[in-house]
Amino acid sequence: MKMMKKRYLIYISLLSLSTLLFSCKDNWETHNEVENVDNTVDISQKLATEANLSVFNGFVKSTGYDVILANSQNYTVWAPTNSALAGLDPAIVADAAKLKDFVANHIALSTYPVSKKLDTVRIKLLNNKYANLVANKFEEATIAGEGLFVKNGVIHTIDQALVTKANIWDYMLASADAPLQRDFIKNLSIQVIDTANATIIGYNTNGNPIFAPNPPLISRNTYWINVADLRDESKQFTYFMLEDAAYTSESAKLASYYPSIDANQSANYYVVKDLTVSGVYTADKLPDTLLSVRGVKVPINKANISKTYKASNGIVYVLKALPFRLKDKVP
Fold first, then answer.
1. In this structure, are residues 320 and 306 in contact, taking their beta carbons and an 8 Å threshold?
2. How far is Cα 44 from Cα 69, in angstroms, rounded to an integer?
3. Which domain range does residue 256 map to?
4. What is the residue-wise DSSP string for 106-126?
5. Rounded Cα gap, residues 157 and 43, in angstroms
6. Rounded CA gap, 200 and 301, in Å?
7. Which CATH number belongs to the domain containing residue 292 in this structure?
């Protein structure tokens, strides 16, 4: 029995060692793919020596990110050239908070080399937005060369300044393109107890907390819960906004089937619940039919698109018409 146990332990040890060696080999091979790493300087120091990135370097210093980029953590910086920054909105430069957000929109934790593959890598940036990296494209910008690798990461030179995009939810609320749809969804908000900050004074027989009188309240929109949370930066959606005429037309078609005065059961709700699709479908990739997150077919006619907005978490199409089939909307 002892001999069997000893052999088993030896086997586990050898297996662990082989796994470690294999992992080290992979890391070493990945390391060897990157040439000309300057291990004598950090990102902050390297950025200061690049003449064609001097304007962005000035922004980095004025916002305090030069200190962050000098520490031991690994970062990737996608730095716009001086010419790319020539057309940057002066209002961003003049506003300290906006400028800090702009700089953070070009920096991520960890090291991201240029890939030869066309796979999309979704990267969280320091301003909590996400960006898509596909081969040598960082969002709409093109990356020049393979990057400047230093001891704590890499600097990529890009040909465009990437202003922070609104997420789909914020864009919809600020837009005047579909006011009826916007206002209906906005009014689906309810007030609920802020359980994170409310004082618990006991528990009922079911084990649920009892809160002190007048607990703090926060707003929750039922669209986030029942359809999709369009604020979520980590996910991507294709979202359709209907101009008022289209929204009114689709709602009228469903009015006799969903006459409820409850907003969450009304005809308007049964229109808007199927305007969100998981994933991003750019105009060149739009099929004639998509499937909403609620499982209903969404008929697409590109001729009805009147406006497009690339959001931080997907894409928005404003439509002149979106004629759902009744058999798809009514069980």
1. yes
2. 5
3. 168-329
4. TEEES--PPPSS--EEEEEBT
5. 13
6. 53
7. 2.30.180
Per residue of the chain (331 residues), give pLDDT as tens: 444 444 444 444 444 444 444 433 333 343 445 667 999 999 999 999 999 999 999 999 999 999 999 999 999 999 999 999 999 999 999 999 999 999 999 999 999 999 888 888 999 999 999 999 999 999 999 999 999 999 999 999 999 999 999 999 999 999 999 999 999 999 998 878 888 888 999 999 999 999 999 888 888 899 999 999 999 999 999 999 999 999 999 999 999 999 887 877 899 999 999 999 999 999 999 999 999 999 999 999 999 999 999 999 999 999 999 999 999 998 7
Whether 280 is covered by a domain: the verdict is yes
Name residue 36's amino acid: N
The angle formed by the CA atoms of residues 203, 204 and 205, to the nearest 5 degrees, is: 125
Tell which of 158, 192, 214 closes a domain: 158
DSSP conformational letter for 302: G
Give me the residue label for tokens 């020049």: 144
Q: Are residues 88 and 196 in the same domain?
A: no
**Position 308: which residue type?**
T
Contacts of 325 (CB under 8 A, 6+ apart): 297, 299
